[in-house]
Write a structure and sequence with these properties.
The chain has 268 residues and is α/β, with parallel strands linked by helices. The protein has helices at 3-12, 27-30, 39-43, 57-63, 96-101, 118-133, 154-166, 181-186, 203-215, 225-228, 233-245, 250-267; strands at 19-23, 52-55, 72-75, 77-78, 91-92, 106-111, 139-143, 171-174, 192-195, 220-222.
């Protein structure tokens, strides 16, 4: 691995080999998502607990401070919306010149395996890897399933992750599944990070799937809605960081959450 690639990955994945990515890219297909109407304000109280931000170039330029920023994973695929015909019909939206200009530490792109646009989105990934490898920029492949939630099972996720890695992704983001997630990770020759997925009903549910995924080989999470849509986002971020970087278990994470939440309530 050349110096530039190794340096950028080290900005994202910390010395303990773990990572906590904070995605705020939802607006590229959802518009003003609840909690992200003002992304810059949303992340202010929680950014210190994450290792990198995952966002689009528009939000980066308009909402994120350039001085002292966390490392940026730049969302570079899109072209569809929630009201469109098919979320999988994505294209590359950002040039390599723009990626370099914005000093991104990595880029992220979705692939929709099993959809009508499988070949198109895998070709997007391959083209992006071809361009980014020339400049030492890591590519994170996002194994997306659109609205087809039932596809979030181990055999499908393992297929997606392996194909993304085979095409050159340096990191793969995928969904956690409650059965055989370890097989998903073991079948992928590059690091796997867990996607947040739909917002959970309770904070404990979040702690449970993150802890389980980490125990089964994931190096961290790319998790947004279950943090910044929480009534207690700072407590959530702090507890998740403890699971990821401090080897906290579910009970310890819950205790950190409760303590942080109670402290904030008393300070009001």
């Amino acid at each position: 691995m050349d110096w530039g690639m190794k340096n950028r990955l080290s900005q994202l994945i910390k010395e303990d080999g773990k990572c906590f990515f904070m995605p705020i890219d939802h607006g590229y297909f959802q518009g003003p998502t609840t909690g992200l109407e003002k992304p810059g304000e949303t992340i202010k109280p929680i950014i210190e607990y994450c290792d990198a931000l995952f966002c689009t170039r528009g939000v980066l330029r308009s909402c994120i401070e350039a001085v002292g920023s966390k490392p940026i994973i730049l969302r570079v695929s899109g072209g569809t919306s929630m009201v469109g015909k098919d979320l999988a019909d994505e294209a590359l939206t950002t040039s390599i010149e723009e990626i370099i200009r914005l000093n991104a530490s990595a880029v992220g792109i979705s692939v929709f395996i099993g959809s009508a646009y499988e070949k198109q989105t895998l070709n997007n990934l391959a083209q992006l890897v071809n361009q980014c490898e020339n400049y030492g920029i890591p590519v994170m492949a996002v194994t997306a399933v659109g609205k087809e939630i039932e596809k979030r099972e181990a055999r499908y996720l393992a297929l997606c992750c392996r194909i993304a890695a085979e095409l050159g992704a340096r990191v793969v983001k995928t969904y956690w599944c409650d059965k055989d997630f370890d097989k998903v990770v073991k079948g992928c020759p590059v690091p796997v990070v867990i996607a947040g997925g739909p917002k959970c009903e309770t904070e404990k549910q979040v702690f449970e799937f993150v802890y389980d995924g980490m125990q089964k080989g994931a190096i961290g999470v790319n998790l947004g809605r279950n943090v910044w849509q929480s009534p207690h986002p700072v407590a959530m971020a702090k507890a998740l960081r403890a699971i990821i970087h401090e080897d906290a278990d579910i009970k310890e994470a819950q205790d950190i959450f409760n303590e942080t939440k109670n402290k904030k309530s008393k300070s009001k």
